[in-house]
């Protein structure tokens, strides 16, 4: 078997190097050593009388001509090989001896900084290891390595315990070698401490304390692993990403994000509104309440009406004791000594603060996803990085290793598909034909959206004209049923029209489908918002219209879940069974990312719209999302196949969060702001009864503070100049837009700088190649000159 080539470099040290010993990983020293090498070669060339000249391309000995060996690699002379061996990249990180020598140099520098005596006072410089004083071989001898190890142990003994532990942790060595170095570098005093001696009680107590600390640490790790095991997406996300790729995985990651948003929205509502009202329930209404029949799980009415589920259950009084004599107008007055917990103010502020926290979290998540997905990276070496640098060597279980293999294989498919897509080119006629087909399909889709919106508006007006009787709660499901049917059928029509479009990129196809479904959902929700806050409020002026709106939004959320489950059953399971039994190909259906993602955004928008009228609606949404995760995961693994055209979903999370932020959350915020500032609350229920607007609760609280005394006069001033002043709102909005704009510009600048740096790195590599070729030509000239002189001498001797 051929032995590996051992590069040997013997460079004499200059007098300036006598007082320092730098690490070979020092970047400036690497450049200086390469510069010194160039100067030495130039000096030798000057002594021989040679001169570097530009050669014509293709000339013999030119730097642009490289001889190839039998395996296609370049063939260099012995002098060039010596130069290549002396380059810093050939002398760093090649062997364990080099690593030990490197950390020996670092420990010596630490001793020099701390003022301790150097080992050089005892051991001569020639005995100390250095990158430039010993031959770096790929397989160093055991004797030399042991000498280097002993010198490193002596230097480690001179360091403090903290520095020694830090140095050992950073060494790229195995745990056994680190443990051996730690045992050898311990002082005799430290070794005696670890041995049992006369102080048996002290050593026993210390061992007991260490055992308790280790037990607590193990218990904490076990609890963390147990909590992590309770999450439903522990192994599912890895399995989905390995089998179906990042495009399908983005849907489940988005669902996981929505669960976190709803939990963040629910926690303050439970703490400051629902929990407080449940602890101090209001007086029960006279007469027997409606009984539960089981239909309330679908309609949200019946026995759910007078509970903490809806707005009408919450009172407008202090909550520590029943009300005293009511004031004129029906507002409840607390008795003396009551708890100063203003329920209307708590209800309004909690909903506002919960929405503000959700907004901040959503914007931060979107910015973080933008930075992760649009990070500029060179695509020239991403395939090699995926092949050689993607494996996690900490994986020991077969299941985890199999998932990682699937993930890497799917990742390579996506990268190759994206690379092939960039290589394609379409003719001018093909582009014109594509634009014409796209325009026609878009016209048909927009006509479908207008038809669906008109149908929803007409049916909602029909529902207002015929009120539902007391025993006919099933009729309440008519409007949600019609809307869910339209939302279910229109995406299939869009999918059929998309088959006519010649999309080369599957990413563009998904984005177009998302845009069409988004327009349909937003148009339908816009008509429904007008129906709830415009028509419903006028028709139910003497009733608790907030409960009616909350119940209707609950029905929309529940029926949306049922239709998603039915679509999963008939659209994936039944289709798979039919295709396997009737066709020979047995092709399974693909997972429709656009439609499923828009269903999640639609359901989340319904939750944000109804949180003011049903504070527990986020809890219903969390249960819905968890059920959807398990159902979709099971159906995906059993009934669906991986995309026929793999594609890399690098920007999908950013797109989903952007759609969730701007159309969905912004629309829900506008809806709630209009309900708080403009719509008159009902006078028979809720915490804002007898007020002109819900915002009037804040104004009444400010007037109460003004009457309380001059000590709290600064709070009304802040409310008047910061909350009621529209200029401050416009200024904050302008500042927010300016921050977003500057953030975008900073990201663009960073991308441009990264591109420039990558270009500079490529130029540096070209410069090094040019330098090596020049040095190669210089040595060839030198060798030819020596051969010619030898030939002349031999000719003279023969003559």
UniProtKB/TrEMBL annotation:
Q: How does it sit in the membrane?
A: Multi-pass membrane protein
What Pfam families does its record include? Answer: TMC
Q: Which residues form the TMC domain?
A: 544-650
One function term, GO molecular function aspect: mechanosensitive monoatomic ion channel activity
Which keywords are on file for this protein? Membrane, Transmembrane, Transmembrane helix
Q: Which GO terms describe its cellular component?
A: endoplasmic reticulum; Golgi apparatus; nuclear membrane; plasma membrane
Transmembrane segment boundaries: 214-236, 248-280, 345-365, 435-459, 474-494, 514-533, 553-578, 654-677, 726-744
Name the principal localization, coarsely classed. membrane
Compartment list: Membrane
Keyword Transmembrane, does the record have it? yes
Q: Which family does it belong to?
A: Belongs to the TMC family.
Put simply, this protein is called Transmembrane channel-like protein
Q: Which organism is it from?
A: Microcebus murinus
Its organism's taxonomic lineage begins at: Eukaryota, Metazoa, Chordata, Craniata, Vertebrata
Q: Which gene is the coding source of this polypeptide chain?
A: TMC6
């Amino acid at each position: 078997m051929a032995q590996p080539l051992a590069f040997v470099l013997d460079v004499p040290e200059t007098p300036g190097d006598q007082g320092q010993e730098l690490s070979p990983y020092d970047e400036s020293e690497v450049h200086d050593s390469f510069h010194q090498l160039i100067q030495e070669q130039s000096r030798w060339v000057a002594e021989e009388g040679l001169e570097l000249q530009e050669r014509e391309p293709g000339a013999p000995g030119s730097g642009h001509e490289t001889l190839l060996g039998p395996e296609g690699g370049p063939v260099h002379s012995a002098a060039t090989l010596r130069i290549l061996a002396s380059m810093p990249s050939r002398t760093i990180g090649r062997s364990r001896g080099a690593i030990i020598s490197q950390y020996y140099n670092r420990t010596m520098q630490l001793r020099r900084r701390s003022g301790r005596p150097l080992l050089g006072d005892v051991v001569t410089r020639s005995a100390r290891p250095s990158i430039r004083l010993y031959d770096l071989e790929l397989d160093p001898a055991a004797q030399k390595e042991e000498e280097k190890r002993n010198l490193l142990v002596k230097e480690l003994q001179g360091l403090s315990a903290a520095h020694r532990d830090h140095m050992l942790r950073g060494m790229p060595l195995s745990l056994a070698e680190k443990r051996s170095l730690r045992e050898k570098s311990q002082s005799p005093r430290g070794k005696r401490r670890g041995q049992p001696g006369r102080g048996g009680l002290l050593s026993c107590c210390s061992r007991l304390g260490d055992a308790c600390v280790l037990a607590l640490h193990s218990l904490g790790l076990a609890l963390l692993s147990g909590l992590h095991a309770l999450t439903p997406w522990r192994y599912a996300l890895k399995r989905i990403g390995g089998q179906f790729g990042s495009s399908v995985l983005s849907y489940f990651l988005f669902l996981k994000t929505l669960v976190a948003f709803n939990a963040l929205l629910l926690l303050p509502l439970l703490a400051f509104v629902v929990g407080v009202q449940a602890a101090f329930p209001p007086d029960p209404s006279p007469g027997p309440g409606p009984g539960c029949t089981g239909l309330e799980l679908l309609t949200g009415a019946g026995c759910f009406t007078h509970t903490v589920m809806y707005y009408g259950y919450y009172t407008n009084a202090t909550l520590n004791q029943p009300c005293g004599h009511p004031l004129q107008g029906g507002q409840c007055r607390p008795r003396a000594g009551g708890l100063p917990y203003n329920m209307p103010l708590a209800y309004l502020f909690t909903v506002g603060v919960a929405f503000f926290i959700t907004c901040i979290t959503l914007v931060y998540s979107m910015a973080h996803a933008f930075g992760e997905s649009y990070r500029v990276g060179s695509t020239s070496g991403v395939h090699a990085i995926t092949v050689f640098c993607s494996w996690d060597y900490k994986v020991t279980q077969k299941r985890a290793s199999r998932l990682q293999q699937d993930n890497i294989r799917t990742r390579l498919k996506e990268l190759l598909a994206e690379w092939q897509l960039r290589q394609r080119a379409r003719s001018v006629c093909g582009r014109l034909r594509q634009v014409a087909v796209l325009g026609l399909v878009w016209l048909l889709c927009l006509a479908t959206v207008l038809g669906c919106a008109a149908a929803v508006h007409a049916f909602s007006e029909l529902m207002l004209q015929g009120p539902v009787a007391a025993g006919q709660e099933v009729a309440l499901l008519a409007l949600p049923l019609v809307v869910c049917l339209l939302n279910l059928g229109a995406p299939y029509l869009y999918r059929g029209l998309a088959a006519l479009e010649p999309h080369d990129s599957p990413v563009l196809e998904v984005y177009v489908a998302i845009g069409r479904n988004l327009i349909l959902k937003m148009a339908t929700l816009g008509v429904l918002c007008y129906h709830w806050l415009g028509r419903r409020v006028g028709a139910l002026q003497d009733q608790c219209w907030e409960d009616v709106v909350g119940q209707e939004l609950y029905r929309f959320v529940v029926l949306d879940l049922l239709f998603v489950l039915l679509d999963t059953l008939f659209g994936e399971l039944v289709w798979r069974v039919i295709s396997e039994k009737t066709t020979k190909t047995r092709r399974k259906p693909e997972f429709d990312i656009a439609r499923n993602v828009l269903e999640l955004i639609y359901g989340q928008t319904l939750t944000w719209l109804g949180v003011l009228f049903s504070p527990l609606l986020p809890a219903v949404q969390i249960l819905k999302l968890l059920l959807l995760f398990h159902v979709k995961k099971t159906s995906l693994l059993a009934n669906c196949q991986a995309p026929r055209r793999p594609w890399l979903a690098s920007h999908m999370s950013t797109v989903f969060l952007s759609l969730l932020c701007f159309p969905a959350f912004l629309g829900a915020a506008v809806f709630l702001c209009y309900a708080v500032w403009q719509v008159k609350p009902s006078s028979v229920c809720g915490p804002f009864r007898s007020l002109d607007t819900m915002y009037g609760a804040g104004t009444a609280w400010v007037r109460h503070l003004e009457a309380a005394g001059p000590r709290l006069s600064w709070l009304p001033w802040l409310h008047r100049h910061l909350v009621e002043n529209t200029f401050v709102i416009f200024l904050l909005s302008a500042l927010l837009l300016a921050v977003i704009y500057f953030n975008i510009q900073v990201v663009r600048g960073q991308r441009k700088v990264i591109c420039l740096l990558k270009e500079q790195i490529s130029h540096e590599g070209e410069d090094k190649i040019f330098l090596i070729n020049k040095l190669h030509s210089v040595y060839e000239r030198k060798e030819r000159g020596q051969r010619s002189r030898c030939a002349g001498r031999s000719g003279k001797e023969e003559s």
